[in-house]
From TrEMBL:
PROSITE patterns: FPG_CAT (PS51068), ZF_FPG_2 (PS51066). GO terms for molecular function: class I DNA-(apurinic or apyrimidinic site) endonuclease activity; damaged DNA binding; oxidized pyrimidine nucleobase lesion DNA N-glycosylase activity; zinc ion binding. Residues 1-95 form the Formamidopyrimidine-DNA glycosylase catalytic domain. It comes from the Bacteria. Pfam families: Fapy_DNA_glyco, H2TH, zf-FPG_IleRS. Residues 88-114 are annotated as: Disordered. InterPro entries: FPG_cat (IPR012319), FPG_N (IPR035937), H2TH_FPG (IPR015886), Ribosomal_uS13-like_H2TH (IPR010979), Znf_DNA_glyclase/AP_lyase (IPR000214), Znf_FPG/IleRS (IPR010663). It comes from Frigoribacterium faeni. It is an enzyme of class 4 (lyase). This is DNA-(apurinic or apyrimidinic site) lyase. Keywords: DNA damage, DNA repair, DNA-binding, Endonuclease, Glycosidase, Hydrolase, Lyase, Metal-binding, Multifunctional enzyme, Nuclease, Zinc, Zinc-finger. Belongs to the FPG family. Residues 290-324 form the FPG-type domain. Its cofactor is Zn(2+).
Length: 324
């Protein structure tokens, strides 16, 4: 399942390539035909993510709400953002656009005159996969496309989401009100206080609370295992028994990892790597995590074999020596 960093990067893709564009909305598969008709022809005015959920706003007062779930993915094609540009903040992008649109000393818009960017294709879900450039635009829909968003320069095809619905502003507010704090949405103090206050009221094990999107937004199976190990915290500890300072540090670490994930497009959860080790970790998931997916292998710190157990239907990885 895509975790919080992936959904923020997808929202950034929409912000950069669709916002301020009139969008043709359709449902090639047919299952979202009624919803598509409500949005078709409107201009996208905003794109934002909260945890694992994304909200696209249109100028007719309606929003497209998408939760990718386990199998959902967006396929983008056309003049789209790639690489590090999907991690840039809106402030930085706005400044960059202003600079690019300013003429140089000779009155020439040098950045704009380089030529149109290549029309390419990328799939964005739990992981991002760049594909070949496209020869014609727009490309034909491939497979079971629930909804297609088509602007004059880019196309986004959604497949296999858990949720895809049209909401008004009140519906968006209601959906967001059910979600816990997101470090990239809430202010640091407000988000930290909400998280600590909620956890301290519950007897539920912290290993389950971190996966509860009403407690904190965006954390999935990988970040859950890695955050608990980095905190040297037993996943079975009831929330109300975790010291307040430990919870504050946990939320601060989540903020750090989420920002890193948005920047890199990968869940890099190991610190203290050499330049060569870091490069290796970027190429291989097996080299970028402390405990996730390492059951039966020695802990990278103490050498005890990492264990895996089922917790509320999901696999939980942890070190029985370092996390007790």
């Amino acid at each position: 399942m895509p975790e919080g960093h992936s959904v923020h990067r997808i929202a950034n893709q929409f912000e950069q390539t669709f916002v301020a564009h009139r969008v043709a909305v359709s449902s090639p598969q047919g299952r979202f035909a009624a919803g598509a008709a409500k949005l078709d022809g409107a201009t996208m005015v905003d794109s934002k993510a909260v945890g694992k959920q994304m909200f696209l706003e249109f100028d007719n007062g309606l929003w497209l709400h998408v939760h990718l779930g386990l199998y959902g993915a967006w396929d983008f094609a056309g003049d789209i953002a790639t690489g590090h540009s999907m991690a840039e903040s809106r402030t930085r992008r706005a400044a960059t656009r202003k600079a690019e649109n300013a003429p140089d000393d000779d009155g020439e818009h040098s950045m704009a005159s380089i030529g149109a960017p290549r029309r390419t294709r990328v799939r964005m879900a739990e992981q991002e996969k760049a594909e070949d450039d496209i020869e014609s635009f727009p490309p034909d829909p491939v497979g079971q496309v629930r909804v297609r968003l088509l602007s004059d320069t880019a196309v986004g095809d959604l497949r296999g989401p858990t949720k895809c619905e049209v909401l008004d502003a009140a519906g968006v507010d209601l959906a967001i009100s059910k979600l816990g704090p997101d470090p990239l949405v809430d202010t640091p103090k407000k988000g930290r206080e909400r998280f600590v206050t909620t956890v301290r009221k519950k007897r539920t094990p912290i290993g389950l609370l971190l996966m509860d999107q009403s407690v904190v937004s965006g954390i999935g199976n990988i970040y859950r295992a890695e955050l608990l190990f980095r905190a040297r915290l037993d996943p079975h500890t009831p929330g109300n028994q975790v010291p307040e300072d430990v919870l504050e540090a946990l939320y601060k670490d989540w903020t750090k990892l989420l920002k890193s994930g948005v920047e890199l497009g990968q869940m890099m959860t190991m610190d203290g790597l050499t330049k060569a080790q870091h490069a290796k970790a970027l190429r291989s998931r097996a080299d970028r995590h402390w405990v996730y997916h390492r059951e039966g292998l020695p802990c990278r710190v103490c050498g005890t074999n990492v264990v895996m157990e089922m917790a509320a239907g999901r696999k939980l990885y942890w070190c029985p020596t370092d996390q007790v």
